[in-house]
């Protein structure tokens, strides 16, 4: 469970690297969930998006496993 420790909060995040190797550097996508959800909101899309992209999913403050300052 990776956690980014900030001054006012701890943010839970997940990084997924592409499962296929290419000569070009993969594009990096940052996925931000909506209100009253968590990074799990994106789980149904991650298999398709993780093939050609590097993904970063994170829980906003007060959501999922992130702290509420």
Architecture overview:
The chain is mainly beta and 69 residues long. 6% of the residues lie in helices and 32% in strands. The chain contains one helix and four strands; from the N terminus they run βββαβ. It has one helix at 46-49, and strands at 3-5, 10-16, 27-32, 53-58. Strands 1-2-4-3 form a four-stranded mixed β-sheet, with no helix packed on it. The longest helix has 4 residues, at 46-49. The chain is elongated. The model has no long low-confidence stretch (mean pLDDT 89).
Supply the helix-strand structural class: mainly beta
Rg from Cα: 13 Å
Main sheet: which strands, in order across? 1-2-4-3
Q: Tell me, briefly, the overall form.
A: elongated
Task: Determine the N-to-C terminus distance.
Answer: 19 Å
Question: Could you tell me the strand content as a percent range?
Answer: 25-35%
The succession of helices and strands, N to C, reads EEEHE
How many helices? The count is 1
Average pLDDT = 89
Low-pLDDT ranges: none
Number of strands: 4
Largest β-sheet summary:
4 strands, mixed
Range of helix content: under 10%
């Amino acid at each position: 469970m990776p956690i980014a420790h900030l001054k006012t909060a701890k943010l839970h995040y997940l990084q997924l690297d592409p499962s296929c190797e290419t000569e070009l550097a993969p594009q990096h996508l940052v996925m931000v969930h909506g209100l009253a959800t968590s990074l799990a909101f994106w789980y149904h899309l991650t298999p398709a998006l993780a093939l050609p992209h590097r993904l970063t999913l994170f829980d906003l403050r007060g959501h999922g496993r992130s702290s509420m300052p």
